[in-house]
Amino acid sequence: MNPAIEIRKVEKRYGELQALGGVDLEVEQGEFFGLLGPNGAGKTTLISIIAGLARATSGEVRVMGADVVADYRRARRMLGVVPQELVFDPFFTVLETLRFQAGYFGLRANGDWIEEVMRNLDLLPKANANMRSLSGGMKRRVLVAQALVHKPPVIVLDEPTAGVDVELRQGLWRFIRGLNRAGHTIVLTTHYLEEAEQLCSRIGMLKAGRIVALDSTRNLLENFAGLQLELTLDRETLPENVRATVIAADSGHFTLRLRDYAELEELLHQLRDARVTIRELELDPPDLEEVFLRVMGRP
Amino acid sequence: MKSGFGTLLYKELLRFWKVSFQTVAAPVLTALLYLLVFAHTLEGRVQVYDGVRYTAFLLPGLVMMSVLQNSFANSSSSLIQSKISGNVIFILLPPISHVEFFCAYVLASMARGITVGACVLAVTAWFVELPLASPAWIVLFALAGSAILGALGLVAGIWADKFEQIAAFQNFIILPLTFLSGVFYSIHSLPPFWQGLSHLNPFFYMIDGFRYGFFGTSDFAPQASLAVVGVSLAALSALALALLKSGYKLRG
Asked: Which of A73, B1, B71, B149 suits a disulfide with B95, CB 3.0-4.6 Å?
């Protein structure tokens, strides 16, 4: 079975600027994959190359086995892209916009599917409204619907929830999760790391045009994040043999970073041996933000 | 699997038709004003072809000028608007080939140019009776002329990054070439130097050949005009297709 997306040694240069420096990546069919990175890391450039909106300086990209340059027609039929920018054609209504988009893929009798997509995204009441008259959130829904009108097996969402209210965000993720359960491959870029943590089974992190971390979300959390422990003790100093990293200390209140639960167990043992009384203890579970900051090399 | 060409063509047609007051009615009014002013001031004072009133001479030129200007305006404005607003992405993501892209934009431009030209002809018909010496030439030059300007508009739309660049293209290239092409006069009335220069203007051949279809007489042989127009169309189409295929200023 071909990977949903296969990226081989992809480089992209804009003059002197190297936007992507030899990216290798595979996204398997049916995955919910997160592509994370700070602004300017190359996420949108990579998505543009996958979608045929930009051409790689070197390297190869395939969507469901179809080369995005040599076999672009097949590759593009397999792909639905929700762009980051809130773009629309002001001449047309919502329904016209969606019918046109389906028509561009050669589909002229898929009104039932368009209606289903509109229903799921709560767009039916706005079917005949001009695109100009819609709120930002509704325009975002239309962008999602446009990416889905041709039922692509691979869906790329480039920061689809930027500036979107909580209600729409939850509704959108319900719908996208449903599509993923139905077998669609989802590739998501987002600055909301909580979303990525909850939704994505695997995550790739881009930094300065290179993949710097690529693993399952669970492994990334286990290997990179560690635990943060808040302790209030009956004294203002910790025993000397405590190995965990102290991030902050203030009048008997300590914030410590631990690698894993084994280190927690060891710490508690050391405190008990030193006859230290714990007045309060709070353990923050690992999160993707911590992983992200560590991978990106920030404190 | 069907292609997206038909939908893209339909979308482009609907785009100008939805604002037909601006894209069709306004240029018809402009042409009508030209006719009223020039016909009123020059009728009876200028004789271009034997036995042909000046107003009759002027009318085919105005019709063709409207065809050419509106064909250019359609493809250039549609593409630059899509590029600047970012919605061009919706036609770049689907599996539409560069040839389909070209054909859809140029055919829609031809439709708008010929619609405006036909409306100008219909509205001004009661001013003067026009002969129809050879309708085939009329149709041939209208089709070729509108296709050339549709292709040129596409090239301008691809090249331009701002609306003002399109406006500059219109004001500094299209408008002078149209006005200096013999819409309002016969180039035989010009001094030899300007006559020679007019022969370098492809718009002259479009208008002269179009006019031949009405009067059966022209400044230049229609077959030769058609050859010039055909070469111009082939060259501009090749340029537009090459730009679209390379993704110049469309695909990063």
From this structure: A73
